[in-house]
Design a protein that fits this description.
alpha+beta, single chain, transmembrane helix, membrane, three-stranded antiparallel beta sheet, transmembrane, rod-shaped, 2 domains, 152 residues
Amino acid sequence: MFHIEPTPLSLWIWIFIIAVPIIVGLIGYFVYFSGSELAKKIGLVILAIGVLGFITAVGLGISSKYYNYTHSAQYNKDKKAKEIEYAHKQIRRIDIQNYKGETTYTYTGNFGFDHKGRNLTLVDNDTANKITLYIGDNDTAIITDLKTKGNK
């Protein structure tokens, strides 16, 4: 897969890669309208080369962007977060602690969670029960991914 590593110089490399086919296409355009029948044929060929070069350069740019993204730390982080969020076999434990560090609520099971403001909503994947918890000013919620069902 073609790719150019993102560096300060790579911007200029991409400008060059995109500009050359545009310039070739413009030359073909001007040759096409310059006059004779032979110039029109040559101009049309040069214009077609410029258009194909531009399409190729855009394709290479998309390929490079995709390669650089899929090999980045952000991609790996997002992929892992999605695996954890949507893993239906993931066993988790939630502990709610008050300001003294005492555990006031514990729940262990196969659940997904959503945190908005001071509300923490748990939905058990096995029973489809919905549990909404209110977390106070000084309370702490600790969610631990324990293991996946079927694995030891």
